[in-house]
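Known limitations

Files may contain more than one protein. Parsers should not assume a single record per file. Below, a two-record file is shown to illustrate correct handling: read the sequence, read the token line, then continue until end of file.
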Amino acid sequence: MRAVLLLFALLLQPLPAQERSASTNVVLILSDDQAYGDFGFLGNRSLSTPHLDAMSERGAWLSTFYVTPVCSTTRASLLSGRYHPRTGVLRNGLPMRAEEVTLAERLAAAGWATGLFGKWHLGDHAPHRAQDQGFEEVLGFPGGILRSLEELPTAVRYTDPALLHNGKPVRGAGFETDVFFDAALAWIERMQAAERPFFAVVAPNAPHRPLDDVPAELLERYLAAGLDEETARVHALVSKVDENVGKLFRRLGELGLTEETLVVFLSDNGGVGSRFDAGLVGGKSSVREGGIRTPLLAHWPGRLPAGRRDGYGVHVDLVPTVLEACGVDAPAASPGGALEGHSLLPLLRGEPEPDLAPALFFHAQTKGDLGLNYAVRTPDWKLVHDDGYDASEPREDAVLLFDMRSDPRELEDVAGEHADVVALLEQEYAAWRRSLDLRAEDYEEPPVALGTPRENPVLLTQLQQHEDTSRWGVVLDRAGTYDVRLRFAPLDVEGRAVLRLESDRERGRNAALNESMAVSPGAGEVLFRGLELAAGRWTLSALLRRAGDRGSAGGVWQAWVERRGP
């Protein structure tokens, strides 16, 4: 089924007639794990990115723009305009709090159409999904990688990907990067026809691992050039992103939208693996420059003079920048909290930088103590507390200091020569840390609400499981009757599927539900019908057993949980 051709049947009405001082459209392109050196214009001679290179020549760009070391935390800061720990996203994969007001919500309230095409990674379930956070059109997938929707754990592919369109399963037609850009362009055309200004986020999963499925023609081109297998595969994925950037600009030109559309491009964090990175140290998950630095490209003909800007910006600056470009006032406060960035439009226009810039803060923990691996950046200095990603024990040589005016690549540690600067920046970090008012439970995955009118059925995937086992934390506001469909890798012999609902405190004892069902050889799913589930907070667990074997025969890949009736 060529599902992508059917994705755009949603009827949208034009805005009520009103006077508008501007009709700025915005397209934000966010690539996934694209390293600082994965651009031709930044010196990579083995990688071809002609359209991104042209964008840097036609538009304004910052050579130093800071994100966070991992996916979710960057996306939370970019879309909220607030440091990600304040939004609930303390580590990768946690959902953003529902009360946060996103850039999409702010623009939607001012009359913009809003669409997200690709990776969200800020919550898979209501009220944390993209469609709950201001995006009226959403084509994407749960979790951080495309495989979460495939029927088998071995089916990791970017071609014809399994996706969700406004919460409904569909199958994309073609390579994932093409699918997302094509969907965004089709939606943009519809918004133009409806005379609606638009805000589109296009966030392909490329060049994020796994690297199993890459465009064959591009891969062969890079292998023929003598690159090693891994680098060739990454380059093929980056080239596919670049091709679609070119397609986007061509179509905007054909639609007559070029001059009234601000197009922004950046990556969410550093790259993975060893390849050219323009001399930067570190990569994804590191607070060194190679983990948190990306070029920021901004194309807006007639509004932003072309050329490189030597100042720097950070993720929380994007919201006030876009709001100013659209002529939308940024409120001093909102239910989520005050914006923490400032508009970069003056800098992108080539105006002088302000004399004083606030300190920037970064950290890279997945759990535990926020202070183990962090960095503080000021105009002159960068302090790095580098214990390693998610370290449990500090290292004696963890504290590093770099003079960013003379050593922007962090090649020479001068902490021993400037103990006063180290102490000052550590105090700045400690004060910022205290302002977050964090608790241990803030690092934990919240339970998934089952049976709510907002989301029914609920899809639970392996990427949301506790400790990579077939267990999910769930909550039911009230008792009800449910059907539960489990999907798994087919057994080669007869077996049984076991489904349990247990208290987190009494797992293995006094289960509220303990059901099992025979599984025939070759079967890949079972359906439990008419289960009575009690209200409360539970652990839902599912496992497979071979006939005559009390041990587990493998994990359950997906669980669809649907409440019957109102």
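...continuing to the second record:
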Amino acid sequence: MTSIPLRLRLLAGAGLIAGSAILAALLAAWGSAETARLIGEDTAAQTRLDLLAQVSARVGDYALVAVDSGAGGLPPAERAGRLDARAVVVRDAFDALGTAYAGSVAEAETMGRMVQMRRATRGIGLARMRANFEALARATPELPDIEALRASLDGFARLFAPLLNEAIESERRESARAAAALDVLRSRMQALAIVVSLVAAALLALYHQALVRPLLARLDRVSRAAEAVGRGGFDQTPPVDRRDELGLVFAQINRMAARLGRGRRALERDRADLAATVAERTAALTAANARLEAVDAERRRFFADVGHELRTPLTVILAETDLAARAGALTEAEFREALGVIGARARRLNRRIDDLLRVARSESGQIELDDAPFDLGRATEDAVADVATLVRRAKVRVDAHLASAATARGDRDWSRQVIAGLIENATRHSYEGGVILIALGSRDGMLTLSVTDEGGGVPPDQQGRVFERHVRGRTTGLGFGVGLALARWIMERQGGRIDLISPAPNGRGTLVTLRFVEAGE
């Protein structure tokens, strides 16, 4: 036994076990295929029985409609219409049954010519049943009275019922044959499984006793030697007792142990050098991290400082504007109008500063939005009122359709600011005398608010970037480039979205649509 190489012995034993497994797999595959085929035949027969039942039921419905129509004295045109409608249902049932028969014949191509011919003959009975019905369907509308109708139906039943019963009995025999064959196959598969299991168990026992058990004993000696080497005992190596593959492995382990002994000392020297290198790199990484944090802090302080430095003079300007407006002058109306323009510009700049600050805070999650129901129509009306002065001075008109009651879920104040910003953008892009259309509706389970202007639209090469921060269009007066970015951020945080189409469906201008989550969804 020792003269045979270990590899050949392992291959021989593995081949026997693999052969048993392959044989079992082939038997299982064959049994599964046969089982699936027989189950399929049984299921198909049951399906055809259901279709035959449907044909019988549809024909019965047709007869009932014919009797009701004849007894009810309906006009010929109405009677023919009702019968034609029921005839279509019966023909559909015949078509479904014919399709099932055709599929059954196609499946029998691999089962022998006799089976295929037997299944094909069922189509003859179907054709005869359908012909009888078509004759009934042609004659029924023309029958003069109820007695003639009943006589026609009785004649049809005498011809149709035997054909239907014969078809049903044929399908029942087909189902019974499949079930009987399935029982025989199950018994054979059980017997084969027992035989294969016994053979596999015998081969496995022989394989273990002749090869695996001696091999495990030798490997146990290797394991003890490897454990000793792992503890640092490089001189405790396994004995080379046989000149086979495992004996060569023992020799390689012995040489490896010797090399490990020599390398251990070098490793201890390298470990000290590595510790120093890791400490140096860690210090460098910590310093780089501190620099990055400082840069980020400087950037955030920059946003905060810009907002603070611009807000302070704006507050003074707004206060002085209000005081001047109340003071009065010789040309009071013109003076108030000029001050109103100054105030509107200052408030507009103030809102843009808020946009910058909010965009900066949004990156660190400092903005907290409410999550509560609110009246979207009322919020839209408030937004229209916020920009009324700007709209009036631009000589455009806002046409708002807000009749529908709509309760959205989210932050009412932020949503109002988003809507006001969209109307302001539409005002800047509209021509004098133009109309800004605002429409409230619903689509795909969400509330929609659309703002459409009649301006020049957004160039195609900029439509994909208008929602990015600090991106401005080529048209002047687009603001600081943060309004639409902030709007998209707010809508997404509320579970909604914002979309832009340019040109709008009317062929010009821009359509911006806000989608809100409806309260209660």
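Parsers that stop after the first record will miss the second one. For reference, the second record is described as follows. Residues 146-230 form the longest helix (85 residues).
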